Amino acid sequence: MNGMQKKWLHRIVALLAALFLTVPLLAQTQPVQAAANDTSLADIKKKGTLVMGTSPDYPPYEFLVNNKPVGMDIDIAKQIAKDIGVKLVVKQMDFDALLVGIETHKIDMVLSAMTPTPARKQSVDFSNVYYNSGQSIIINKTDKNIYKNYKNFANKKVGAQTGSLQYDLVKKQIKGVKMTGLTKVTDLIIALKTHKIDGIATESAVATAYVKNNPDLMVLNHQFNLSETDSGSAIAFHKGSGTLVAAANKTIAKIKKNNLTEKYLADAGKSLKVNVADTSMWHYRSYFIKGVGYTLLISLIAVLIGVVLGTLLALSRLSHFLPLKWLATAYVEFIRGTPLMIQVMFLYFGLNIPALTAGVAGVAMNSGAYVAEYIRGGIDSVPKGQVEAARSLGLSYKDTMRYVILPQALKIIWPSLGNEFISLIKESSIVSVIGVTDLIYQLRLVQAATYKGIAPYAVAMVIYFILVFGLTRLLNFAERKMQHA
């Protein structure tokens, strides 16, 4: 590649990078209307749905029973939707992605035991506080003589949910603390029980729920020095949603007047008993079956699209039409140079694509870039004499590729393609970050429902092994057939 070609290649890569960085910013840049022109409530009524975002691993606020979201926050959201006169739609997301979902208009509100801190108020509007729970620390019972309050955790390892108020409280108020931030409380519980961390900072109601179902744990209540902004849960809305916030506040006032939060908490407690009545993995087999179905669906579609896309990219990179060659090269280099998780989140949040579509597209686009390199390498491995012989017989470039080069290249690259297919089954788990119900996502739901951490992981490992082992044998069989063809 000469200097001029390199120059153009760099320009194309820079253009693609700028596009990936600019589009989500444009998608997030929504004009904030003045109060007099606020139509947020009218827009919800016109749409007919109120989309709630939540992370359902936080009992008694939000969790799953029989794969359906329940809990106090769900009941509050239902009441708000009923009072407005619309249908409630619940979207499940990781906690640290909820505010991004608000800002990119994937959801209308966040009900997930979120504290209205000053930092959060800069990007979203909050309702009035609907419940005050307090802050606690979960510890192992064996450590009850070591830890009496949060000050005893100086220079110790403490875990908290990423993006939560508790994470900030621990960092600010415990001297020399070694922080561990995870997106799921269930993962923090596992870390605590395996002594990778010494305590978990979380809401008092949540701590109580987990400890009731884990007899080897205990709670240190009433921890940290709390200000008015460090306690209480509120509902987050788009910035400038004054009329919608007012409608939510009206419902919250009614709930408080009738003391409905206590009823909602009592109902949540009954639902928790349903989950722990039978915590065997066999009882939750439907969760895993659903996850396997989505994992195979995503992998299959991604493989088909990836192979087609990879072939087109490989042929484009081998083309003598320089603009096409440079564009294909820029795409391959850019996709291979950025994490798959970022690509999936960009498609979902930045381009406002539905979760399943974004997951499939992200995995397929990523796979296509790698498949392109396998195919290009396979084509280059075919002796040039084969091409010359085919052309001398009068075959066109298209027929030469179709009947001579690609069949031989396929035999050469089949092991590499097989490894890519196998990797897709495992790498597709990344789509769980945007709420797609693949095997990993369902695993986390089982953890939240049963309060068991290790058993769901063990089941998922066995399932992945069976899938990969079966596919490996099938690919090896196909390879032997090709070698004898």
From TrEMBL:
Membrane topology: Multi-pass membrane protein
Record protein name field: GlnM
KW Plastid (keyword) present: no
The family this protein is said to belong to: Belongs to the binding-protein-dependent transport system permease family. HisMQ subfamily.
Main location per the UniProt record: membrane
PROSITE patterns reported in the protein's UniProt record: ABC_TM1
Domain ABC transmembrane type-1: 292-475
Taxonomic superkingdom: Bacteria
Keywords: Amino-acid transport, Cell membrane, Membrane, Signal, Transmembrane, Transmembrane helix, Transport
A single BP term in Gene Ontology: amino acid transport
Protein's cellular compartments: Cell membrane
Signal peptide: 1-27
Lineage: Bacteria, Bacillati, Bacillota, Bacilli, Lactobacillales
GO molecular function: transmembrane transporter activity
Keyword Cell membrane: yes
